[in-house]
Amino acid sequence: MASLVDALLILVFVLDIFLLGTSRIGSVIRTVAWQGVLLGLLPVLVRTHLDAEAVAVGLVTVGLKGVVIPRMLERSVRAVSIRREVEPFVGFGTSILLGGLGAALALAFTRTLPLLPGEADHLIVPASLATVITGFILLTTRRKAINQVVGYLVLENGIFIFGLLLLEPVPLLVEAGVLLDLVVAIFVMGIMLDKIRREFSSIDTRKLSALREE
Amino acid sequence: MAAILLVLPVAAAIAAWLMRSNDARPLLLPAVALAHTGLTAALLCGAVAIPDHDWLWLDWLWLDPPGRLVLGLVSVLFLACAVYAVGYLRFRRERDNRVFVTCLAALLAALTLAILARHVGVMWVAIEASALAGAPLIYFNQSARSIEATWKYLLVGSVGVAIALLGTFFLAYAAVKAGAETRLRFDDLTAVAPQLSTPWLKAAFVLLLVGYGTKMGLAPMHTWKPDAYGEAPGLAGAIFAGGVTSVAFLAILRVLRVCHAAGLGPFATHLLVVLGLLSMAIAGGLMVGQQDFKRMLAYSSVEHMGILALGVGIGGLATFGALLHLLCNGLTKGVLFLSAANIHRAYGSKLTGEGPGAVRGALRALPLSGGLFLAGFFAITGAPPFGPFISELTIARATFAGGHGVVGGLFLLFLMVVFVGMGSTVLKVTLGEGPTRAATWRDGLAGSASIVALLALVVLLGVWIPAPLEALLRETVVWLEGGR
Could you give the ipTM of this predicted complex? Predict the structure, then answer.
């Protein structure tokens, strides 16, 4: 199973890079949905044997990150006429390069951390950190509010991957709380996206610049 | 019993959501706040104990010494704000307050859960929930500016809390790697701290400090704060600046305790001192020439979060001072935000400076609110006989006594800069030839009673620290630093 897990993690990272390089908002949301589905498969695969808790976490993850959250995002952009990120603060090529750099840093940083035997050879920690870094890049370089929400989602996905190492010690109720918080966060952000659209007739965050120090 | 403390505000939130009458709904707030404060008092006096059972999920709840302090503070502050909210929402009765009242009650529930949380994961879930419950409070005025403030708050806050989640996972992994049969409760983690893997624990502390530091508003993670506090209604600002920040600080204290027990005290406290001084410096710099008196209060909050971080960073007597300052700052922030809200409402503006519509002469136009605002300013900048004077003096004394001359010097310098910067704005607001017009809003019992009560507590802490409180503060210092 270990090689399969690593293969999926590499796929997750490929989607990270794709997210950094794509401008169409529709495909950004679809990509992040696919990433969510991949994440849902992981809890089942990292276990040596099949157990109910991992399956439950996997199913809920696929449901929320693969279906519910992308649907909410799609609904909130449907009303907006803009379909793509036109001019991000940092170009798409540069952000891909930054993502690659981030992955290299993640690999280097993982080397310095002591891991349990058996987990040291896995890509879980570097893939997690690289995805967190991708989320950060999306959050800071994109102008459309919807892409910032996607950035937050990718950041959370990265943290979720790290959580795979902790499936056993963390109680199910806590995991449920974490997922619930995430859904509510995206829901609230969706509401605010709608308010921004109504108020400014766009979801370009450059319009949000009334509050600053002179 | 502890469970009732949680169930109560949740029930109030549900009731507020279901209630039809816009006029009656705000009355839920003082009712639930009064019950909450009563129960809290019973818990703090030891009349009721937190059960340490293994059944259900009650072994996830506890009340540690700093938790007692913060629970008392949050409960009292919320009560004051709840009483104030009735008058405020009656004044704004044209606006639907369903979401506002529901979210206030939900915020109280989330803060209570975070205070009672014994499990690192439960605490994270509660703090994230409090962040989300706070967002609609900032949006209450529904203007373009409040949308912008809410968006920044949501994005920066959510990312901060997400980083705290990664830190929580790192901390959990450090425990798993140690092979200890831990349940990721703070006391278990502290017990096995010496066996925790140092690199993981260090990384966890940095991430948790950044994450919960964002909620606290420590510089350089403070960027959302002036916008959110500036646009939110004053009573929401009071709960944010006095309650939410204190709970985030409590989270950092709990992690700091694990670091102390693991022998990483010097590493952690060094970071806290640096962030503390940075927060004070940045807040001081941005306060000079600040025209908007609500944004000024936000920077004051950044400054005082810096003082808290600095205090526990120095340790010993300074930790004692910081814990006392936690109470003093929370209560004084209540005085400042609520009286500033009154002034804002009466003038329809929160800008000082020249030109028409600028706020001037509040002492004459609104003697009570203006006076309270001025008193709050003297209190927060550390003038006697108010509480912050004692706590700031304690921190300064301990810093110099500990041989940290440079840190102590900078601490005093930044306090001075803040005093001058904040003073020039506050004096513009309160003094001078103001309009004596009959404003749409006037001082009255509903809008001032709770501010007067809070100020009385601030004065009380300045002249007399009750023996049980002093014992609790000392117990917390030992709890945190292991009697080092």
Answer: 0.93
